[in-house]
Design brief:
This protein starts with 5 loop residues before the first strand and ends in a 12-residue tail after the last helix. Strands 2-3-1-4-5 form a five-stranded parallel β-sheet, sandwiched between helices. It is globular and about 50 Å long. The protein has one domain: 3-Layer(aba) Sandwich (Rossmann fold), CATH 3.40.50. It is an alpha/beta fold. The longest helix is centred in the last third of the chain and has 22 residues.
């Protein structure tokens, strides 16, 4: 019998690594390869599996993720075979914060932020439309997770049908790492 997969998705720099830390603290096994090591941008780690970047070429390995949590950036989510039993946690963050954080990470200064923002808005809308047709999805706002942690985590626990110790999970949420905020 196939087990459900928990997929954490969103734009890069939207809080996906934080959500992976939360799921790990909740007791989930994390699908990651440890290739990308923690750094000053993500001091607690990236929680990635490099194969996700090549999902459009090969997704034969995805069955390995059954019963685990995996981070799949939203641009690759289209290539990740989801079932109605899988659960997706889609992270949302203010797009100005996302773009600023991405620029800092890449050492760039995007001059056409309006076009990028418009692209992201369309991408998110199309992605969420697809998810609503194929699987269960919980939308989590990054700001709400950091400012209204107990309520946001309670929604997550209900979505996943789990009962971890709230205080243990809250300890993962470090508002000091919330940089590039508006």
């Amino acid at each position: 019998m196939k087990q459900m997969k928990i997929v954490v998705s969103g734009l890069p720099r939207s809080g996906t690594s934080l959500m992976m830390q939360i799921l790990e603290r909740c007791g989930y096994t994390i699908q990651q390869d440890y290739m990308r090591v923690p750094d000053s941008n993500n001091p607690n780690g990236y929680y990635e599996d490099e194969r996700v970047k090549r999902l459009h070429l090969d997704h034969s390995w995805v069955d390995e993720t059954e019963g685990k949590a995996i981070k799949v950036v939203s641009s690759q989510l289209w290539y990740f075979p989801l079932t109605k039993d899988d659960k997706v946690i889609y992270m949302h963050r203010d797009l100005d914060e996302v773009i600023q954080s991405q620029n800092i990470l890449a050492g760039l200064d995007s001059e056409d932020k309006w076009m990028l923002k418009k692209h992201y808005i369309n991408h998110i809308r199309h992605t969420l439309d697809r998810l609503s047709e194929t699987t269960q999805c919980l939308n989590v706002d990054h700001r709400e997770l950091l400012t209204n942690t107990v309520e946001t985590l309670s929604r997550l626990f209900s979505f996943l049908d789990i009962s971890p110790v709230m205080e243990d999970v809250i300890s993962v949420v470090d508002t000091g790492l919330w940089r590039n905020r508006k």
